[in-house]
Design brief:
Elements (H helix, E strand, L loop, with lengths): L3 H17 L3 H8 L8 E6 L3 H12 L3 E9 L11 E5 L6 H14 L7 E6 L3 H4 L9 H14 L3 H9 L8 H6 L3 E7 L22 H10 L6 H8 L9 E7 L1 H14 L3 E9 L3 H18 L7 E7 L13 H12 L6 E7 L11 E5 L2 H7 L4 H6 L3 H7 L3 E2 L10 E7 L1
Bound molecules: adenosine-5'-triphosphate (ATP), (2R)-2,3-dihydroxypropanoic acid and magnesium ion.
The site of adenosine-5'-triphosphate has 21 residues, from helix 13.
Cofactor: Mg(2+)
Keywords: ATP-binding, Kinase, Nucleotide-binding, Transferase
Catalytic activity: (R)-glycerate + ATP = (2R)-2-phosphoglycerate + ADP + H(+)
């Protein structure tokens, strides 16, 4: 029923359409009309801020008294009414981060209990929205952020430290907005969707403590000055009374859509996990083993089947090649699936950029590794050298979408016929 080309086309179509379901524009337009907002101050922060703000403007128009957008360099796409649009440093904050955040604080400081801040938040916000705590300099924040990013600490751990060194993170932004209200729409790029972790939770009570923050620094051997320590010891808010939050997109939603689309195409479809977080090459091998079980034993699903996985794997980069976690997962699966017909696996970053490459991920089948070998190349060597990009490029297995404007972790689908 499916030749390899049409199976490949179908997998790409399902992945692309599922990502469209988590475009922030769509979710903002669905959610805002239910919220009964009038005369708001709009503050949009994160990698998806521009698209979220634009969608809100299209729904609310003149009901927005003032708009400020803060996003990463290159992530805004022009004017939106008379909104102030700032681009700033990511993943490490810079002078523009501070400038934009000060402007937002200046605006919210003038509000009273009859006012509402519409806060549109997405991943990347930790670096784009920041005013260091009293006694801490931007340079110190930059040095600490760089050290934490390289340390192998998780995003929960990194943001635990960030929250305790900031005038806006860890609920302090909502505290500053009080007595006005915050209505927040949040797009999650954190597995588990913890609202106090996504973009360091500017409008959510902090679940972490000063002691947790100090422990993270100790665990990763990062030294701090006395003034930084004093700032960390000032505890973040644990209760907020002026906040209403809606989560408008996450990896679960992209997986749900993939399952629905696969079913519509006649596949037996199941979401296996939405929290895949192991080493990418292990994930690729394991997913390939499940695909083989379906192929040869018709379990846990009968063919034609679609296996769906969401999450964010990790790569400990040891070689000097180029690639990303989705490409590495795909290459590893390609090695395990070599020679098998009627199987295809696609692994994609929903933001459209996988690692420091122009690809969103990889799409591989039983012929991928064979093609490489026929060229005299050893796919395993490429995997060893973390050079998944070049291996997939040579075998025609890169998935290229360009930046999508959304960011909700990674989607992996395996089709077996
Ligand atoms: N050669 C490589 N092969 C495989 N993975 C790599 C390679 N070089 C870097 N990476 C991985 O790419 C990751 C960064 O990729 P990417 O920018 O897609 O991350 P991200 O989690 O989407 O970032 P953000 O959350 O800011 O959107 C790093 O964590 C690193 O593990
Ligand atoms: O900004 C951040 O902290 C990360 O993208 C997680 O949301
Ligand atoms: Mg990304």
């Amino acid at each position: 029923m499916f030749d390899p080309e049409s199976l490949k086309k179908l997998a790409i179509e399902i992945v692309k359409k599922s990502i469209e379901a988590v475009f922030p524009d769509r979710a903002v337009k669905e959610t805002l009309p239910k919220l009964n907002l009038d005369r708001v101050i709009l503050v949009a922060v994160g990698k998806a801020a521009w698209r979220m703000a634009k969608a809100a403007y299209e729904v609310l128009g003149e009901k927005i008294r003032k708009g400020v957008v803060v996003t990463k360099y290159g992530h805004s796409e022009g004017l939106i009414d008379d909104f102030e649009i700032y681009e700033a440093g990511h993943p490490v904050p810079d002078e523009n981060t501070i400038k934009a955040t000060e402007r937002v604080l200046e605006l919210v400081d003038q509000l009273n209990e009859n006012d509402t801040v519409l806060f549109l938040l997405s991943g990347g916000g930790s670096s784009l929205f920041e005013l260091p705590a009293e006694g801490v300099s931007l340079e110190e924040i930059q040095k600490l952020t760089s050290a934490l990013l390289k340390s192998g600490a998780s995003i929960e751990e990194i943001n635990t430290v960030r929250k305790h060194l900031s005038q806006v993170k860890g609920g302090r932004f909502a505290e500053r907005v009080f007595p006005a209200k915050v209505v927040a729409l949040v797009l999650s790029d954190v597995l588990g969707d913890r609202l106090d972790v996504i973009a360091s939770g500017p409008a959510w009570p902090d679940n972490s403590t000063s002691e947790d923050a100090l422990k993270v620094l100790e665990r990763y051997g990062i030294e701090i000055s006395e003034s930084v320590k004093r700032a960390i010891l000032r505890e973040t808010p644990k209760h907020l009374s002026n906040v209403e939050i809606d989560l408008i997109g996450n990896v679960q939603k992209v997986c749900d859509e993939a399952k629905k689309l696969a079913k519509e195409k006649g596949f037996n479809a199941e979401i296996i996990t939405t929290s895949l977080d192991c080493e990418a090459r292990e994930a690729g091998r394991f997913i390939a083993s499940i695909m083989k079980e379906v192929k040869f034993k018709d379990r846990p699903l009968k063919k034609p089947a679609a296996l769906i996985f969401g999450g964010e794997t990790v790569v400990h980069v040891k070689g000097n090649g180029i690639g990303g976690r989705n490409q590495e997962l795909a290459l590893s699966a390609a090695i395990a699936l070599e020679g098998i017909e009627g199987v295809i696996l696609c692994s994609a970053g929903t933001d459209g950029t996988d690692g420091p490459t122009d690809a969103a991920g990889g799409i591989v089948d039983g012929s991928t590794a064979k093609t490489l070998k026929a060229m005299g190349e050893d796919p395993y060597q490429y995997l060893e050298n973390n050079d998944s990009y070049n291996a997939l490029k040579k075998s025609g297995a890169l998935l290229i979408t360009g930046p999508t404007g959304t960011n909700v972790n990674d989607l992996i689908i395996g089709l077996i016929v």
